Model the fold of this input.
Amino acid sequence: MKNVENRCCLQLSTLGVKTTIIHPATEKHIIKYSSQNSYMLDETPDIYNNIVVPHITSDKFDLQWVYNIIDHKSESDRILVEDTDPINGFVVVPDLKWNGDLETLYFLAICNRRELKSIRDLTAEHLPLLNKIKATTINAIKSKYGLDGSQLRIYLHYQPSFYHLHIHFTYLRHEAPGILAERAHLLTTVISNLELISDYYQKATIPFVVRENDSLFEELAKQNLLKKRDGKQIP
Done:
């Protein structure tokens, strides 16, 4: 299966424009890029286990494009660095949003382990993986682009845009989408939390933003955890 998100090159007169074409566009893609209300939820472990996990499990999130990258079926010519270890390995590729300009540098480190979906799955067991991703990717970026680790913003999203553990590396000067406090969790903080409490992310209440047209919002509204801005409940 080919990636559904592709880049295109435009004429010189349109160099200020970057376009992402998604084909075929599913309902999830349409919802993702539509203007809609957003809401903050304080997700307790109970909410995660009883509502979010069943949602992730039952909803069909297409991860084939991620597996294609890990298996070298796509993007193999764009890999910055990788580690093929099945437990603590990963692959680092440019994010599709990066236009190649150093000012907007943006890489994704995608772990090889397919059972890890988000920070909720992380425990102290995964510290070697996280530390290796951090050190290896920082060194690779410094070697190729001359940026020191102190010039990088390194973080995970919660909720993530796709449920396969990945870590974002961006140039600190670039105000990339998703860097606000309600979504971005700095990798250094994640590592520190796990060093202090091995199952921190199984016990913590984690706030996150959910959009009104997201199917997860419907599940949360049915349990009276959220409601639309006009006050109407989901029947």
